[in-house]
TrEMBL record, chains A, B:
<dbReference type="InterPro" id="IPR036271">
    <property type="entry name" value="Tet_transcr_reg_TetR-rel_C_sf"/>
</dbReference>
<dbReference type="InterPro" id="IPR011075">
    <property type="entry name" value="TetR_C"/>
</dbReference>
<keyword id="KW-0804">Transcription</keyword>
<dbReference type="InterPro" id="IPR001647">
    <property type="entry name" value="HTH_TetR"/>
</dbReference>
<dbReference type="GO" id="GO:0003677">
    <property type="term" value="F:DNA binding"/>
</dbReference>
<dbReference type="Pfam" id="PF00440">
    <property type="entry name" value="TetR_N"/>
</dbReference>
<dbReference type="Pfam" id="PF16925">
    <property type="entry name" value="TetR_C_13"/>
</dbReference>
<protein>
    <submittedName>
        <fullName>TetR/AcrR family transcriptional regulator</fullName>
    </submittedName>
</protein>
<keyword id="KW-0238">DNA-binding</keyword>
<keyword id="KW-0805">Transcription regulation</keyword>
<feature type="domain" description="HTH tetR-type">
    <location>
        <begin position="1"/>
        <end position="61"/>
    </location>
</feature>
<dbReference type="InterPro" id="IPR009057">
    <property type="entry name" value="Homeodomain-like_sf"/>
</dbReference>
<feature type="DNA-binding region" description="H-T-H motif">
    <location>
        <begin position="24"/>
        <end position="43"/>
    </location>
</feature>
Length: 194, 194
DNA sequence: CCAAGAACATACAAACTAGTATGTATTTAA
DNA sequence: TTAAATACATACTAGTTTGTATGTTCTTGG
């Protein structure tokens, strides 16, 4: 991992815990054993580092997680519940305590910085679009009930995910997160035609 | 409004926008036209101010919103959907842009400060308890389907609410919030026996 | 081989920020 | 009425934190 990647990665970790405003870049730099010279060589400032973290770490990760929805073979509901199960599987007690980095950043920075806001909204929009693709396919091939508001359901699924992270964090409990996701899975299954 | 209440209230507003770490108490004090002397007379420090805001503003507000669940006459589902409708009604474009102050604070401070974490978790716990009361009554008097996991559903409803706030904030859209809450209302109605 | 830019290191500055120390006016209680 | 506590104001400090200016080494293309 080169210096730029190290700076990005360590600052991302620190930002997950302390938030963007609470992130102290110089502390991270010290921990890495490098100096300010390296930092300001690669990034013109703290904000630009933040934007780079969003573009190069957060966005690829969150869009990648939803990518399987694009062309799923076992039906759209199965594809969606697979994503939800995956979220349960890849989250540990520690990650739940920290919460969803994407949501953390939205909550903190959306009202304070337009660039952050637009970039982060774009990620959610991409997730929503992928859900809409999967759900629309399910409606077209008769897998889903008729009269489903595809976009509303897509928004709602994302909201259920972020809400589960929020609650898991509030209760410091992976179990609360899992149970909430399970209820969401139950809701998604109800979209299927009997 | 006395000086202490002014300090609490204005700092609360600023904290909703900037977060606790981003809150600059001296800036708020200047805007109020008072000085540091007044602030440190009433609060021993920034953290203690934060705790007071949680205890005296946030907790009463959020628990109050859920209080009608305690003894509702028109059935438990109606009581819960009423709360959800109320949340839609009392939120404007501006409040959605800022997000749910309770959730904001949880996301920011839970991993960083145990006192914040415990206080905030207590608020969610109180909300959950009130939902459990309403749902249990619904199960007992036969209003709800059998086999409902009362506590899981309670967690899930809170998660749906917080998720809706999070998404509304991410998309800077009250409409997204409303649509997500509507889906949650639809889910809650499905708990009813046909 | 050598010039030029890339990749850092070092030292310093400017602004901010929470908090303190102290002073004063006003209210309250004995 | 007077001592004491309350309710503030003023001025100052110590510690951060972001950022800059400048210097040095290393790499690389011609």
């Amino acid at each position: 991992m080169n210096t730029r990647e190290q700076i990005l990665s360590k600052n991302y970790e620190a930002m997950c815990l302390h938030g963007f405003q609470g992130l102290r870049t110089d502390k991270v730099i010290n921990e890495l054993g490098i100096t300010k010279g390296a930092f300001y060589h690669y990034f013109s400032g703290k904000k630009e580092l933040g934007y780079a973290i969003v573009d190069e770490i957060i966005a690829p990760h969150y869009i990648g997680t939803f990518a399987p929805l694009k062309n799923s073979k076992n039906g759209s509901i199965e594809a969606i519940t697979s994503v939800l199960e995956y979220l349960k599987g890849c989250s540990s007690r520690e990650t739940i305590h920290i919460g969803c980095p994407l949501n953390n950043l939205v909550q903190e920075m959306s009202p304070l910085d337009d660039t952050f806001r637009d970039k982060l909204r774009g990620i959610f929009e991409a997730q929503k679009d992928l859900l809409v693709i999967a759900l629309s396919r399910g409606v077209e091939n008769g897998e889903l009930k008729e009269g489903i508001m595809v976009e509303d359901v897509a928004f709602y699924i994302i909201s259920g995910i972020e809400g589960s992270y929020a609650l898991g964090k509030a209760f410091q409990s992976k179990k609360v997160f899992d149970r909430s996701i399970d209820q969401l899975i139950g809701y998604v299954r109800l979209l299927k035609k009997d």
